[in-house]
Amino acid sequence: MACITNKLRLAGLRPTRQRVALGSILFGSGDRHVSAEMLHAEALAAGEQVSLATVYNTLHQFTEAGLLRELAIDGSKAFFDTNTSNHNHFYVENDGSLLDIPTGSIRVDGLPEPPKGLKISHIDVVVRLVPDDR
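The structure assignment produced for this chain is given below.
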């Protein structure tokens, strides 16, 4: 718990009971991809009494503080990635899961010059996968 408390403080967030509890679930077992609904179910299973709205708010606060990276899939499904480095993903359509693509596996060439006063922060590439029915 002390590690999560320090992580929150370093990110400029007050370590409330709910943030610490959700942060412990999120960051307690390595890099992962979660939706708000997945985290909410895990929190309830761990005995934490939090609403889905609180989970959404906390995930967005963690994202704004740089602790998470949000990935929008299909415009309606959002995942939150604990690995905030610039990397790309496979999306397995039949089960809705995300997997990291190994670094260096994708090269993006020919990017347009951004408008004056703006710069490219990162590029999200999502490669969609379906079962190979051979």
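Interim note for the steering committee: Residues 52-64 form the longest helix (13 residues). The beta strands are 33-34, 69-73, 77-81, 89-92, 97-100, 126-129.
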